Amino acid sequence: MQENRISRWYFGGISSSVAACLTHPLDLIKVHLQTQQEVRLRMIEMTVNVVRREGILGLYSGLSASLCRQMTYSLVRFGIYETVRDQINREKKGLMPFYQKVLLGAFGGFVGGFIGTPADLVNVRMQNDVKLPVQLRRNYVHALDGLLRVFKEEGLKNLFSGATLASTRGALVSVGQLSCYDQSKQLVLATGYLTDNILTHFLASVFAGGCATILCQPLDVVKTRLMNSKQEYGGVFYCLTETAKLGPKAFYKGLVPAGIRLIPHTVFTYLFLEQLRQRFGVVVIA
């Protein structure tokens, strides 16, 4: 009988948090590009601009909120997906078909996206603060301070501003990351040329990160604008129409930095996750 190891429910949140620490500057630049009203600065120019005004540490503005987001949003979606998938695989003594992985990934991502909305909102605001004039900055000290201030100053409703978009985006990202990673890893292993090693994890996660970037970019742009707004957008539909007025390319504003951020984030997440699984995962008898 063969022993295998499966992930513990919280491994996804830990792995995503470590990956967020490594890719946070890219995420910050992506937010800055998406919240421009007109395309003025490119990725390199925006990076130089932030460093010139705030210093190197300015690239890590909002890191506490980013970690808070990963330990809510990613913890939940990975926990749901991996726990249910492993349970079904054990009961059926086989692998789930791809369409079931897509449905499960979408469900886990939707639930995680909703739960992670408050932290996501504070994350976007803290990242965008550095490019605002001093008198307009919100100056959240850390993630918890931001969450409490939004609740006190704007109410519970605004704490979940953009929850519909965040949940929908979470579903799309999770289909790209979780479902596509699982399937691509399965296909790579089926060739017989590679084993369950770091190279396999790397190849599968690069593909998954690319899928996730393409799927979620339009919603990501609208979500970022809505969360960063000071009530100028009446709702999701109004934000969509205002963004559409800037042209179709506006929905893919920041696509390159989004890919440059999301693909490495996906790769780091799965490299750490697979190492945690192989070393500290739950042992099951196949």
Overview of this protein structure:
The structure is a single chain. The chain has 286 residues and is mainly α. It is built from ten helices and two strands; from the N terminus they run E-H-H-H-H-H-H-H-H-H-H-E. Helix 1 (11-34) packs antiparallel against helix 10. The model has no long low-confidence stretch (mean pLDDT 87).
Essential attributes:
mainly alpha, two-stranded antiparallel sheet, globular
Brief summary:
The protein is built from ten helices and two strands, in the order βααααααααααβ. The chain has 286 residues and is mainly alpha-helical. Helix 3 (63-92) packs antiparallel against helix 4 (98-115), helix 4 (98-115) packs antiparallel against helix 7 and helix 8 packs across helix 10 (255-280).
Q: Determine Rg (CA atoms, Å).
A: 19 Å
Helix content: over 70%
Let me know the number of strands: 2
Uncertain segments are: none
Distance between the termini: 6 Å
**Widest sheet: strand order?**
1-2
Count of separate DSSP helical elements? 10
Morphology: globular
> What share of residues are in beta strands?
under 5%
Helix and strand element order: EHHHHHHHHHHE
The computed structural class is mainly alpha
What's the average pLDDT?
87
Largest sheet: 2 strands, antiparallel
Strand-helix topology:
Blueprint: E1 3-6, H1 11-34, H2 43-54, H3 63-92, H4 98-115, H5 117-129, H6 143-159, H7 163-190, H8 198-228, H9 236-244, H10 255-280, E2 282-285
Antiparallel strand pairs: 1-2
Helix pairs in contact: 1-3, 1-10, 3-4, 3-5, 4-7, 5-6, 7-8, 8-9, 8-10
